[in-house]
Design brief:
The protein is built from 12 helices and 11 strands. The strands form 4 sheets. A 4-stranded mixed beta sheet has the order 2-1-3-6, with helices on both faces. It has a 3-stranded mixed beta sheet with strand order 4-11-8. The chain has a two-stranded parallel ribbon with strand order 5-7. Helix 5 packs across helix 7. By secondary structure, it is of the alpha/beta class.
Length: 375
């Protein structure tokens, strides 16, 4: 006997009015709809999880325009625009977007760049950025917020003005879309006392992380960084670079040396995403060769080595591409890469970048038509 007939029989035995009967039948229909919707939603969730586990979701790629947002954090202009132009001109324009944070008032047009890909791609609300200051984080957050306005942006890559791609666009696109994880260099470094106890309880010490500034985030993690209103204020107050000793300032400079030496951009994103580490590949996709100097006063030891034309040889580039794991000494942890570990590298001069271009690293190169291509 159907549910509807059972309701009718009960109604006839108890002399329920037709109006009440219709109300009960309506409730039954609504209940069935709710149950069906729940089962269908669970099925969709399970299907989505299985697609993620498989890696590259071909159906999803065919159904939606999934873009990579390239976020350039630069001083003013883009000295390597010619290399990036060749990279983008060999790409499907429906698969990427470009955003540039430069100094306030700087405009990318025909007078400041030869590449049409960067025309008017600067943020209108940029801030003056200082190295080792919270303004660096502020600029990053502005880039992520701007890129999140486009719902088709699914991957967000933060780059500097000295970064170069090590592969063509097609390879990088497939690599990034094949992974459900963000790539965030994140580790615990107990040798440096950069954590300030005054950051607690908003930032507990067990969540304090260090890592490379150059990150690649999936959309859900980009939203965490862009819309964070808890961690950033704490960093703005308590995470600041210790100024260099200035004997002319006397005791004032000595007092400054007692403060925690905290570099905001090396800690902000890894610390903000410490609660999501099971969703991260805890390594950066941007290669840097750090100066190995052990001299305490050697300031060059604080910065990556700059690649020149001579050191950007095919062999050196191939050596970077062949790296398949990253070892974190402070944690005795090895991150193995399914394929190459690095898609980008820094810091490259114009001469080094021209060598990559002429060697076809980012795609076919014709010097006669380099800047004659439209978007």
């Amino acid at each position: 006997m159907t549910a509807k007939k059972r309701f009718v029989n009960v109604a006839s035995r108890r002399h329920i009015s037709p109006l009440v009967l219709k109300f009960l039948i309506l409730l039954l229909i609504l209940f069935c709809i709710v149950v069906f919707s729940g089962v269908f939603s669970q099925f969709r969730l399970q299907s989505s999880s299985s697609f993620t586990d498989l890696g590259l979701d071909e159906l999803r790629l065919d159904s939606y325009r999934m873009k990579i947002a390239f976020l350039f954090l630069v001083r003013d202009n883009l000295p390597l625009d010619f290399l990036w132009h060749n990279f983008f001109k060999n790409a499907d324009p429906e698969k990427f977007t470009i955003y540039v944070h430069s100094k306030p008032g700087f405009v990318f047009d025909a007078s400041t760049t030869k590449s049409v890909f960067f025309y008017n791609r600067q943020l209108k609300n940029s801030v003056e950025v200082g190295w080792g200051k919270p303004t660096m984080i502020q600029a990053e957050k502005l880039l992520f917020k701007a890129a999140l306005d486009d719902p088709d942006n699914h991957i967000f890559v933060l780059l500097s003005d000295s970064c170069v791609p090590l592969y063509n666009f097609s390879y990088i696109y497939t690599y990034l879309m094949s992974s459900p994880r963000s790539f965030v260099d994140s580790f615990i470094d107990a040798t440096e006392e950069r954590y300030n106890p005054e950051m607690s309880p908003d930032i507990p010490e067990e969540k304090w992380r260090k890592g490379s500034q150059w990150i690649t985030l999936v959309r859900r993690h980009a939203e965490v960084v862009a819309y964070d209103h808890v961690v950033f204020p704490v960093f703005n107050k308590h995470c600041k670079r210790r100024p260099l000793l200035d004997l002319s300032k006397g005791n004032e400079s000595l007092i400054e040396q007692q403060q925690h030496n905290c570099i905001p951009d090396e800690h902000y994103v890894p610390t903000s995403l410490a609660g999501f580490e099971d969703e991260l590949a805890r390594r950066t996709l941007t290669y840097s060769l750090w100066n190995q100097s052990t001299e305490t006063m050697d300031t060059q030891a604080w910065h990556p080595v700059t690649f020149s034309y001579a050191t950007a040889s095919q062999k050196n580039i191939q050596d970077i591409k062949d790296i398949d794991h990253v070892y974190f000494k402070s944690e005795n942890r090895t991150e193995w890469c399914s394929g190459p570990c690095y898609l980008f590298a820094r810091k490259f001069t114009r001469g080094a970048s021209m060598r990559l271009l002429t060697n076809g690293v980012v795609g076919p190169y014709d010097p006669n038509t380099l800047f004659l291509d439209r978007i």
